[in-house]
Specification:
- This protein is of the alpha/beta class.
- The chain folds into two domains: about 230 residues, Rossmann fold (3-Layer(aba) Sandwich), CATH 3.40.50.300; about 60 residues, no CATH class.
- The chain has eight helices and twelve strands.
- Strands 5-6-7-3-8-9 form a six-stranded mixed β-sheet, with helices on both faces. Strands 2-1-4 form a three-stranded antiparallel β-sheet, with no helix packed on it. It has a three-stranded antiparallel β-sheet with strand order 10-11-12.
- β10 and β11 form a beta hairpin.
- It is globular.
Amino acid sequence: MLRNQRAWRAGTDGGPHGDEVVRLDNATLSFGRHRLWDSLTFSLKKGEFLAVLGPNGAGKTTLLKVLLGLQPLSSGKVEVLNRAPRRGSSKIGYIPQQRKFDSQSPVRGRDLVRLGIDGHRPGVPLPAVTTRSRVDAAIRSVGAETYANAPLGKLSGGEQQRLRIAQAVAGDPAILLCDEPLLSLDPASQDAVASLIDARRVAAGTAVVFVTHEINPVLPYVDSVVYLVDGQWAVGTPEQVFTSERLSELYGIPVVAARLGDRIEVVTSHGGALMDLMDEEKCRLLSAMENEGHRGPV
């Protein structure tokens, strides 16, 4: 599916910034002397799919924490749904990295999904019939009916991740924040999870912020990219960001980016060996080399 064939298109209504659901203006975040990013600026509209990329330690997951209201900025401004971010918002769904549940855990898939409806809700719970109906609808939306009553620890990684998506959409969020949800999944499960997340975007106009090391599994769905590297950043469409010139500026070393069919390949020559910069282990190696002083100026 090409981006110009997308089923959802954001409108132009909704105030001074249209129907934006996320906006960062000159956002800077530092921990002591270490600056994760400086003057980061971008916006996200209803129904758009934003991919966040970069090596380990670049601040990808921390950006999600800022949007969740868990991490304040050092300076600048952030708005989520036209207000400062706040903890526990039912309008934000969160999909974490895939981690296996304890094989002995008695918690069922259905129990996990229910947390997406009343896990953040203090006081009197929703009526049981209402909750059950919403849980069933969320489970159907990800095709998990046949194993939703099974213990989570007995399910495959792909099945568990489908149920995490169901949990995230059960509360009918306006924004989905996805923290490397494809990590440790096989290619078929990666494709299925990415497709399910985009299906929610299409059906409900939900904005998606998708943290990942690898652009290709989500490339058919992506509108824009935030690429973070060692305090530097680039924002734009995949065509604008994934260029040899722009990525060489970000990494401070010669980088080659090329579109090969329906894939984007990004490589650098470090010590005479080609290194895939969208490979998680190799990104970790490059980060270690940079920390030892191998990185040139940007």
